[in-house]
Design a protein that fits this description.
Blueprint (H helix, E strand, L loop, with lengths): L18 H8 L1 H24 L9 H24 L6 H13 L2 H13 L3 H39 L1 H4 L3
Helix pairs in contact: 2-3, 2-4, 3-4, 3-6, 5-6
Length: about 170
């Protein structure tokens, strides 16, 4: 005997997992912010690559510079958004994911390394890959340290100012 279908009760009473479509519907504003930041960051990286082109066997200075500067700025940005600034919905997605994600580039970094290997410069490729990784980590640490020191100095300066010492 065939089973009878339950009567239509309208929309489901419990929410279903949103999936990609639901996530896009719920966070379209963040996606637009990230896309705008990514466009700006990518334009900056493109301009840097145009200013500092390299040959097949040359070290890709523009990509290395973009990744190094991006790592440094990301370190500073993380301090500001997690320790200094009040929470804002769009700051980290726009600057961290969008602008810096578009400016820095793992894909070009790997493509440049592959091009060096294909050109017979495997040693140079290895130095580039390892050098970028190490200098990027130090740059991020430097951005964190410099930003924390700057914030600490500014807070100390504000505490010592005559305006801060006045009583209301």
């Amino acid at each position: 005997m065939p089973r009878a279908h339950p009567p239509d009760r309208g929309p489901a009473t419990r929410p279903t997992p949103p999936g990609l479509a639901g996530t896009i519907r719920e966070r379209w504003d963040l996606l637009l912010v990230i896309a705008a930041g990514g466009a700006l960051g990518s334009l900056g990286r493109w301009a840097l690559a145009q200013a500092f082109p390299h040959g097949r066997r040359g070290i890709p200075a523009a990509t290395w510079t973009a990744n190094l500067v991006g790592s440094f700025v990301l370190g500073g940005l993380l301090v500001l958004v997690t320790e200094v600034w009040p929470p804002r919905r769009y700051v980290r997605p726009f600057l961290g994911v969008g602008v810096l994600g578009g400016f820095t580039t793992f894909s070009t970094y790997m493509l440049d390394a592959h091009t060096l290997v294909d050109a017979g410069a495997a040693g140079r490729a290895a130095a580039y890959v390892l050098g970028t990784l190490v200098t990027g980590l130090f740059a991020c640490w430097g951005g964190i340290a410099l930003t924390r020191a700057t914030v600490r100095t500014q807070r100390d300066r504000l505490r010592r100012s005559p305006i801060a010492k006045e009583k209301p």
